[in-house]
Amino acid sequence: MTKKRYLMGILALFVGCVVNYFGDRLLGVQIELFRGLQGFGGPWFADMFILPFFVGAVVAALYGRGGKWLCYFPPLFVRLFSYYEISHMNSIPVNTSLIPMGWWGFFVLLVVESAALGGLAYEFLIKAKFGKKPSRTKNKQTIRKNERDVKA
């Protein structure tokens, strides 16, 4: 891997975290707080499934091929930061409680898998549009040509 590839990976992770963090703030949902049944509505669903899917697609778009492997990390980092922020930096609002770690872990798994689906969907779009890399097919053709020369 080249230095440019590492920098693109770091940039993709950073942009994914920023999009996820500010998307959470824009939706106004805090998954880490339990508000009863009224907390599970449309904005909660969007924050759990639609926003991470979009974040995964953004990370895959910035990184390019192989971006589906980086898509797991921005939602994980943002959820960890949000849980820490609520439990240690901010006070818990009235009529809410901090969600138990077991439920929080389950929600984090759902969020991370939604981001992975977004990255995978974008990877399929890349492959459908561009197909295989020309350098790979060129290398295979060169190897096959060299193998024929050796056999003769």
Q: Helical element count?
A: 5
Shape designation: elongated
Structural class: mainly alpha
**How confident overall, as mean pLDDT?**
83
Q: Beta-sheet strand percentage?
A: under 5%
Helix fraction bin: over 70%
Q: How many β-strand runs?
A: 2
H/E element sequence: HEHHEHH
Largest sheet: 2 strands, antiparallel
Distance between the termini: 36 Å
**Which runs of at least 5 residues are low in confidence (pLDDT < 50)?**
none
Spatial order of the strands forming the largest sheet:
1-2
What's the structural domain tally? 1
Explain the layout of strands and helices:
Blueprint: H1 3-27, E1 33-34, H2 42-63, H3 73-89, E2 97-98, H4 101-130, H5 134-151
Antiparallel strand pairs: 1-2
Helix pairs in contact: 1-2, 1-3, 2-4, 3-4
Provide a descriptive summary of the structure in words.
By secondary structure, the chain is mainly α. It has one domain. A two-stranded antiparallel ribbon has the order 1-2. The protein is elongated, with a radius of gyration of 21 Å. The mean pLDDT is 83.
